[in-house]
Amino acid sequence: MFCSAWAILLVLICASAGCTSPSGPATTTPVTPAEGSNAITIKNFAFSPATLTVRTGTTVTWANQDTAPHQIASDPGTPVAFSSDSLAKGASYRFTFTQPGTYTYYCTIHPTMKGTIIVQS
Ligand SMILES: [Cu+2]
Fold first, then answer.
1. Are strands 58-64 and 92-97 parallel, antiparallel or unpaired?
2. Residue 15 three-state SS
3. Burial 39-62 (b: 16+ CB within 10 A, else e)
4. Which of 66, 60, 111 lies closest to 90 in space, CA to CA?
5. 59: CA distance to ligand 1 center in Å?
């Protein structure tokens, strides 16, 4: 009796303290960099590679390795718009490109950071 009540209390404390992961496209799970050719590393205030060519349907993952936060957003005029939450160190963002075209993007926190994804059909 006491034990089960204590377990419930612990769960409630955990939930209110934010142990559960927030909803949304961004994840704080550390990502092993460079799996295949669809991973972009954010390091030293730059996207690497700065230009990435993928096929339609590819999911691209950006992983922030900087201590500074970065936030990705597509430039106006891309075939499909995308944007991430602010990515802390170790956080990553994924976007699946379902439409061919050239996607230029930047960091909304550091607008001089720019990158390009070329999606081939
Ligand atoms: Cu940035």
1. antiparallel
2. helix
3. bbbbeeebbeeeebebeeebebbb
4. 66
5. 21
Distance in angstroms (rounded) separating the CA atoms of residues 116 and 113: 11
26 alpha carbon – ligand 1 mean position (Å): 15
Task: Give CA–CA dist 92/85, Å, rounded.
Answer: 9
Please give the average pLDDT of every successive group of 10 residues along the chain, which has 121 residues. 50 47 49 61 98 96 98 97 98 97 98 97 92
How many angstroms is it from 62 CA to the middle of ligand 1?
12
Rounded distance from Cα 13 to ligand 1 centre (Å): 34
Report helix, strand or coil for 11.
helix
**Residue 103: CB atoms within 10 Å:** 24
Tokens of 119: 């999606």
Distance 34 CA to ligand 1 centre (A): 19
Say if residues 52 and 72 touch (Cβ distance below 8 Å): no
CB-based contacts of 111, cutoff 8 Å, min separation 6: none
